[in-house]
Amino acid sequence: MKPRSRLWTEIDFDRDGKQVGALNLPHSVTRSAYGVVPIPLAVVKNGDGPTLLFMAGNHGDEYEGQVVLGELIRSLDPARIRGRVIILPAVNLPAAKAHMRVSPLDGLNLNRVFPGDPAGQPTEQLAFHISSILMPMADAFIDIHAGGSSLDYLPFVSFRLSGDADLDRRTLAAARATDAPRIVIWRNKEASGNSSDSALANRIVGLGGEWGGAGVVSPAGVELVTREVANLLGHFGLTTGEARSRHHPDAPLIEIRDSTYYVYAPHDGVFVPERDLGAEVKQGEVAGAVHTPEHPDRPPSLAHFKRDGLLVCKRAIGRVEAGDCLMHLATPYAGPALG
Fold this sequence. Notes:
This protein has six helices and 18 strands. It is an alpha+beta fold and about 350 residues long. It has two domains: about 15-255, Aminopeptidase; about 260-330, CATH 2.40.50.100. It is globular.
């Protein structure tokens, strides 16, 4: 027998019009024996057509998508679309309310537990519902990220390769339709268990992306995400007759492949970066220095880049612990042809 999700909603996904409610995650605690976590959910539908599933707040301290999807819920008129839009503007609500990357309910990172477990911890149950109930309804899935409290990013849209030439071609076309300034293909396995893996398992177009960081809301990031969402609605045919902006028709295709793209803190201390986001760096160059104020007699340790590349991500917090990610790179895409 197929496992059943414990989450529930009063929203009717097949009904035309706009419905705003909650995806209820059962959570029994001392304060509330039969309580739920009411995760915001909206469905906007008009007739037959494609279904887009938009999600933000996968990590609670990433805000651009949460702001834009809230505005989308308020502004999207069912009469102006053909098809269905499912919107989760703050999917990891406990983490969003706590300004945390991981859920305070169980300490789990939602974007590392897909496809989830219907009988697992709350975060695992949520991942299961998304991957097993919501994704099968959709033609495309868009998970909007930023760097969170610890990282800052150059903005980009991203995806993972499926090995299915047609699906990869359609995903790349959707990525280009967002009008992002650059397109990243994740080819590393360090972040397995993320929502993109479940999109691939469901054989649907799956996009991610990083649109800011440092735990703050970037006005430029909000503008980019707003354009991304509008362009995807047009690209998939839910809206027609509206001009789609094209600021980046030749967005470069870049990739992130393995641990050599990352720079890590050699020990605890305070990180002073040597290079800025967007810099082209060379293997062996100094990425920055880690100082130890608690041992002022010790000279700082230097961290070096392990390869050439474009600096797309930099730590946003000065204090570090051994093993913290300080920076990471991307390089021109060198994988199989995508059409």
